[in-house]
UniProtKB/TrEMBL annotation:
<dbReference type="GO" id="GO:0003955">
    <property type="term" value="F:NAD(P)H dehydrogenase (quinone) activity"/>
</dbReference>
<dbReference type="InterPro" id="IPR023753">
    <property type="entry name" value="FAD/NAD-binding_dom"/>
</dbReference>
<keyword id="KW-0560">Oxidoreductase</keyword>
<dbReference type="InterPro" id="IPR036188">
    <property type="entry name" value="FAD/NAD-bd_sf"/>
</dbReference>
<keyword id="KW-0285">Flavoprotein</keyword>
<comment type="similarity">
    <text>Belongs to the NADH dehydrogenase family.</text>
</comment>
<feature type="domain" description="FAD/NAD(P)-binding">
    <location>
        <begin position="7"/>
        <end position="276"/>
    </location>
</feature>
<dbReference type="Pfam" id="PF07992">
    <property type="entry name" value="Pyr_redox_2"/>
</dbReference>
<protein>
    <submittedName>
        <fullName>NADH dehydrogenase FAD-containing subunit</fullName>
    </submittedName>
</protein>
<dbReference type="InterPro" id="IPR051169">
    <property type="entry name" value="NADH-Q_oxidoreductase"/>
</dbReference>
<dbReference type="GO" id="GO:0019646">
    <property type="term" value="P:aerobic electron transport chain"/>
</dbReference>
<keyword id="KW-0274">FAD</keyword>
Length: 357
């Protein structure tokens, strides 16, 4: 692809898509399709939920000096045989190469009442406004014991000490962490007054709270952070996908069914030798975008490689957790906590924005 200039369409301006577009645009003509004009810094949504100012730089600033045209629109259909992308604006874009980076969204798993009564992480700003304007403090139930749920629960508890915060998980809250990591999270919960409900699978969400297989949990507000799922467009377009809808790619992140399409970020099922299948996260999405930018501009011809180093969690503004891990994402015993962990997390989160270019 380095012999002559190509027209490359990138759909999605998250961590993977924006990192790829900024790098590919140094050499090729790129059209970036995304409905938003500002970058959604997804790993800071817990801060937005607590009413803190959003850190959302303009896409134009990230892409300045690149051969990238931003189409502020949504993709409605892909014609892979004709190499066209159809937009909700009525426009059809032709491409030489397509980069599919639509990422993921919060999965509600068909739980009755979740869509009507729960706030997914994507509605963080609405949740903040609802809590700010409430007539009196109440109870918030955060569903999900993973990183997003833990960060939301601790951030809300610190920002709104008059509210009762509960975190509800089908398994153990923070169950993937080492014993030292879980112990620190539980200490922070105790300090902030967060009540943890382990092994309580949610069966329904109502206006009064949650129904679980262990009984009911009262809540004035419900926040949903259980897990993520890919968008349906890849499967609808005919790309080879896994049962959960992620596109199957080769070692160079090309679709195994359509080699003119690259799939990166949460939308792709990526398996790395010696590591295994990568999880959906900013930590894996942005490196994929960086790699693809190098691949399509002649900076590398090697397969995509990746290894985990740490897990970082914000636990409010005054605490944090850095969990050391092996390359394959298995836990090491050692953790960093308190101010040290908080500063490391801050450096990484702020470094993400610099790294997009």
């Amino acid at each position: 692809m380095t012999g002559q200039q190509q027209h490359i369409v990138v759909i999605g301006a998250g961590y993977a898509g924006l990192a790829a577009a900024a790098r590919i645009g140094k050499q090729h003509r790129v059209t970036l399709v995304a409905p938003e004009s500002r970058f959604l810094h997804r790993v800071r949504e817990h801060e937005a939920a607590a009413g803190r100012p959003a850190q959302r730089p303009e896409l134009a600033k990230v892409l300045r000096g690149r051969q990238v045209t931003h189409r502020q629109a949504r993709v409605t259909e892909l014609d892979l045989a004709g190499r066209k992308v159809f937009l909700d604006s009525g426009e059809a874009l032709s491409y030489d190469t397509l980069v599919y980076a639509l990422g993921s969204r919060t999965a509600l798993h068909g739980i009755p009442g979740a869509a009507e009564h729960a706030y997914p992480a994507e509605r963080a700003a609405e949740l903040a406004e609802r809590m700010r304007t409430a007539a009196q403090p109440g109870t918030v139930a955060v569903v999900g014991g993973g990183p997003t749920g833990i960060e939301l629960a601790t951030e809300l508890a610190e920002a709104h000490p008059a509210w009762q915060i509960r975190i509800v998980a089908a398994g153990q809250v923070g169950g993937w962490l080492s014993p030292n990591g879980r112990a620190h999270v539980n200490r922070v919960f105790g300090r902030l007054g967060v009540q943890a409900h382990d092994r309580s699978a949610v069966t329904a969400v109502t206006a009064a709270g949650l129904r679980t297989d262990q009984g009911t949990i009262d809540a004035d507000l419900v926040v949903w952070a259980a897990s993520m799922e890919p968008r349906e467009l890849a499967a609808e377009a005919g790309l080879a996908v896994t049962p959960d809808g992620r596109a199957v790619v080769d070692a160079h992140l090309r679709s195994v069914s359509h080699p003119e399409v690259y799939v990166i970020g949460d939308a792709a099922q990526v398996v790395v030798e010696g590591v295994g299948e990568l999880r959906m996260s900013c930590a894996t999405a942005q490196p994929m975008g960086v790699y693809l930018g190098k691949l399509l501009t002649g900076g590398t011809d090697k397969p995509f490689d990746f290894g985990y180093v740490i897990h970082c969690l914000s636990l409010g503004r005054k605490d944090g957790l850095v969990q050391l891990v092996h390359k394959d994402d298995s836990m090491k015993p050692k953790v960093l906590t308190g101010t040290t962990a908080r500063l490391i997390k801050g450096l990484i989160v702020n470094g993400v924005l610099w790294g997009l270019r």
